[in-house]
Specification:
The chain is mostly beta strands. It has two domains: about 150 residues, no CATH class; about 150 residues, Rieske Iron-sulfur Protein (3-layer Sandwich). About 10% of the residues lie in helices and about 35% in strands. The protein is built from five helices and 29 strands. It has a five-stranded antiparallel sheet with strand order 1-10-11-12-13, with no helix packed on it. Strands 2-16-4-3-15 form a five-stranded mixed sheet. A hairpin with a 5-residue loop joins strand 25 and strand 26. The longest helix has 7 residues. The radius of gyration is 20 Å and the shape is globular. The protein starts with 19 loop residues before the first strand and ends in an 8-residue tail after the last strand. About 45% of the residues are buried.
């Protein structure tokens, strides 16, 4: 395949070119946001609904929400938060919201990212404007060009409802709809996509029938172990405690987050929930969590916790768990890049 107009070093690649498919729009045809504008929580509350999904990022003492209503149209925001250059990315075909550090390598080279217009396993392939290397969004790995083999650092981020964000961070900032582009941010462009049971759009590869292709999962990798926790598990177990490769983790689930994909014919937005992952160890103690009437409580002290891993009352009030970078993906996309993954269908770590 010929890639006309690119300055990329195509002699370097880590994947077969046959796996890279044109997605439709040309390079940056899905336009990234390079000069983001922000609003206060109060200003954004005038038009945002409580259950609307946002990507929440906290860095350098600052908190910011990136609504999926905007990200689903632009897919990449090149930004800076708390003095840290970040790329907030979202691939709607795989439902992958991932935040990266934009500085790469020992020399900490600063990169800006755009969309190539190509997909691999239905996932967005990004490009950096400094070397025109191509990067796989799900893995954060450069797969073509000068940076081939390099990896971006994943930064902790949470996909939560607007209601949860504004309650936790009333002084935070919000990505504004004043992007400089003409888009209908109130009407996402992929109606009903997450309700499909058929082969996902532009996906060429093996589907695993343990879960339906667009089942939402929390994906984690530690060492040689990859694990997927389907959202169907959280319907009966809104708090999951587990241990992977010796790492004690907990997953908190909130049921009030809407799907970013409009219901069929734009009639509704189903509520699908959201999940966050934390290290269970705090001050040398491995905590065990459970849900009590929708409130997360730890067994050791009886303190209550919110979806952001912060104790809101009890002996540990004000304490915060360490967030663990994780993935909220569609199952087919997680499996495509993690074919040896375990599917956890129980909240019992022994099963």
């Amino acid at each position: 395949m010929r890639y006309i107009g690119w300055k990329t070093d195509f002699t370097k690649s880590s994947v077969p070119y046959s796996e890279i498919k044109r997605g439709g729009p040309p390079r940056d045809g899905i336009t990234p946001i390079d000069h983001p504008v922000f609003e206060t929580v109060s200003e954004a509350s005038s038009y945002m609904t409580d259950h609307e999904p946002v990507v929440s990022v906290e860095l350098g003492g600052e908190s910011r929400a990136y609504p999926l209503a905007i990200l689903i149209w632009h897919e990449i925001v090149n930004d800076e938060l708390g003095g840290n250059p970040i790329a907030v990315t979202y691939c709607p075909l795989c439902n992958t919201a991932i935040v990266f550090d934009r500085e790469v390598g020992e020399e900490r080279r600063l990169l800006d990212f755009g969309t190539t217009g190509y997909l691999r396993h239905s996932d967005m392939v990004m490009w950096d404007r400094q070397t025109e290397s191509w990067w796989q969004q799900i893995t954060g790995e450069a797969i073509v060009g000068e940076f081939t083999g390099a990896r971006l650092e994943f930064l902790p981020a949470r996909l939560v409802s607007w209601q949860d964000f504004k309650q936790a961070f009333p002084k935070g900032s919000v990505l504004s709809r004043e992007t400089g582009y003409s888009r209908n941010y109130g009407r996402p462009p992929y109606p009903g996509y997450d309700s499909a049971d058929s082969r996902p759009f532009m996906f060429v590869g093996e589907l695993d029938d343990r879960l339906r292709p667009t089942e939402r999962i929390v994906g984690l990798t530690f060492g040689d172990t990859a694990a997927a926790y389907p959202f169907m598990l959280f319907e009966t177990s809104p708090v999951v405690n587990d241990t992977i490769e010796g790492r004690d983790i907990t997953i908190f689930y909130a049921p009030d987050t809407m799907s970013p994909f409009l219901g069929m014919f734009g009639t509704s937005n189903p509520v699908v929930g959201s999940a966050s992952v934390y290290d269970r160890n705090l001050n040398g103690i491995s905590l065990t969590f459970y849900a009590n009437d929708g409130v997360v409580v730890d067994e050791q002290t009886g303190s209550t916790w919110n979806i952001f891993g912060t104790a809101t009352s009890g002996p540990l009030e004000g304490s915060a768990l360490t967030p663990i970078p994780h993935d909220n993906h569609f199952w087919f996309a997680w499996y495509a890049f993690n074919p040896e993954t375990q599917v956890r269908l129980s909240d019992d770590p022994g099963e």
